[in-house]
Fold these 2 entries.
Entry 1:
Amino acid sequence: MDLRSEQLADGVEKISLVGRMDSIGGHDINVRLSALVANRKLLAVVDLSEVSFLASIGIRTLVVNARAQSMRGGVMALASPQPLVAEVLKMAGIDTIIPVYPDVDTACSALMAGAGSR
């Protein structure tokens, strides 16, 4: 599992996850994602376009980090999940906890619009 982060021009942090968020990949990403988002307020988009599998540990990682951002006044959104991953998110009800968007651009626009109303 790999994690890449980049600051987009509009102030949104794009976090790209690559691989399988299973028991092995999920643990590694949990530590790295938490280190990236735990101590600062962000508008963060997690790009799931290259995540091929999402297990319960991956779901937990996403929810815990989204809640941490919310507690700091930030926002985390998910973008571009592959069909299998999107189905898992929907079945687990994660789409009611963390906003899920069809692509990174739509997610960025929504985060920026929400930030303007705060």
Entry 2:
Amino acid sequence: MSVYRTPSGKSWRAFLKYRGHRDSRTFDRKQDALQWLTEQRAEIDRGSWLDPARARIPVGDLFDLWLDSRDVQGSTRRNDRNVWTAYVKPKFGRLALGDVTVTMVREWVSRLRTKKGPAAPRTKRDALRVLRNVLDYAVEDGRIVKNPAAGIRVAGTKGTPGQALSMGELRTFVAALSESERDVALVLGLAGLRWSELAALDERDVVRVGPRMFLMVRRRRVLDEEGRRVTLPGTKRGSEVSRPVPVVPELVPIIEAHLTGHPMSPLFASRQGSRLDSRNWRREAGWVNASASIGRENLRPHDLRHTAATAWLRLTGDVKAVQALLGHATATMTLDLYSHLLTDSLDRATDLMAQGLAADAEQAEKSKKKDHEHPGTGGAGS
């Protein structure tokens, strides 16, 4: 490692040689050249030094590697590629990894545009998510030390997760649907399944463990990259992921009524006997009119999942249980989505805590009074 003046005499060059790697940087001031070398030495001493040459590849060279590393398929994969192509690639596709800065990312997000004008907050969030994940992959691959997009957030995208119905609204809504389609809506609203998971259920996925019934979520019905509906293994979290969903007693006879003794048949089938399609099912169920009957014109099937999550959290206050029910990767994710619903649970917990403290204080007072009325008679030899 050394610092020397360039032949022109107008700048300083810092030279680094380490484990066969050679690197040099030119600076206007000797002080800056020395500072750069000091930082490199510190990284080497900490064992966190990275070969700068590995950060000179274009960001675009990592996109396909990152996408292939994800355990996702179908529409999720297609959407990620569309977001990359439309918004991220034009700015960062040919840019070297090491040249991406926090300021650059922040300005790109703030100025992002679509063909119709300034991009909506959700579009910005999706574009930033793809870029951030590609750069995370670069960090994991030892190409850059930190992700310059890690701490950037998009204003206007945080909020409650869709609409959640009260139990009264849910029952009114279900009653307004076509009679033959009510079972599906009630299962969605009480079990918290994603539509893709419910549509992929077979009769073999209904299992009993002792007195309890469970739905084993092992597959999902989704659109592939060509727009065709296919059944894939696993859940939204990946092809190797499955989970048991407990069936509340109200749903047990409903599910039993759909069992025909054919393990490989869909548990919930269309009127034609095929797997359910969300658009066709909503039309046949009278979804629009039923939504209007409770004043929720923009209600989606996914909102019934939010309804189940809300009910389970409010009635149990058990975040870990709701995490398992929904199939979230972490309890933190569940809290991020539904923390605003825990007020009732905290109120109940506070009341129970107050009752417990009052009972302890009362018991302590009784013990103190008893000791006062019956003092000990200790003496020599006692």
